[in-house]
Amino acid sequence: MKFYIILIILSTYAFALDTMPNTADATKSKIETKNIASDTSKKSMQKWINSEFGLQPYRTNYLLPFSIANRTYHSHTAGEDFKNKEAEIQVSLKLKVANNLFGLNEKYYLSYTQHAFWQIYTQSAPFRESLYNPEAFVIFPISDKKSCLQMRSLKFAIAHKSNGQPNTENNPAYNGFNLSKSINYVYTTLRLQHKTLITDLTLMTPYLGSSDLTDNPDIMKYMGYTKVKFTYFYNKNMFTLMLRGNIDSRKGAVEGTYSYPVYKSTYLYAKVFSGYMESLIDYNHYITKFAIGVSFSR
Known about the structure:
Strands 2-3-4-5-6-7-8-9-10-11-12-13 form a 12-stranded antiparallel β-barrel. The protein folds into 2 domains: about 1-55, no CATH class; about 55-295, Phospholipase A1 (Outer membrane phospholipase (ompla), Chain C, Beta Barrel), CATH 2.40.230.10. A hairpin with a 4-residue loop joins strand 10 (about 235-245) and strand 11 (about 250-265). The chain contains 3 helices and 13 strands. By secondary structure, the protein is mostly beta strands.
């Protein structure tokens, strides 16, 4: 039954992404607008018919029905036994809210990413953790044709990431463990391009001092303040390599992904992760994991 649910989600999502935003849904397909006198009303109705709400993919949207880690996940809830096999789902969308406010052709966005770890291979199939990651950011384009860096854009962002769990520090059932994990942070990313190689250089830090890290006061030790990501295109193939870390603690993570188009907006997608902060609940546990499935954006 669990696999039927995954197949339904997969087929529905793929079809929806493949048909947006130019195809009206069946309930609106026969609605006429040509005889509407008001141009403004006609335009509003047409956008509603076409479901044009300005949402675009942000980070990779994927469904990975199978992933396997090098160790069994620890359950912090009594009566739940987790396995080292699970599914992963990520939905990530952005919305442009403003443009060119300072005459620099900059673009302003709001985004939301949800990343879920689903223990479908256990009997009750709970979600091990769901991560909620809203962001607000601005991107300044750079037309750099002379320097060796070949800079393309500069991004400034403010973000929040949490697992939405209650504070359980004083609950004796959890032996002092706090289920709630979160971080508020800011980051900036400089994007470079050398032919088919895209390089993203990122600096990140928590904001408001340490007051926003009470759930996990040592999280930056494992998350790190620096990140570099390489994206390389070879014909239809796309490869990424991400390295993130803290120089002082010598802790961090590396992640590699591969994608290849299989049908219109659907891609074969595989990733390997090794390091810390694969999820927030286990941010200070080292893990190596392989996952495979499909993505609906790159």
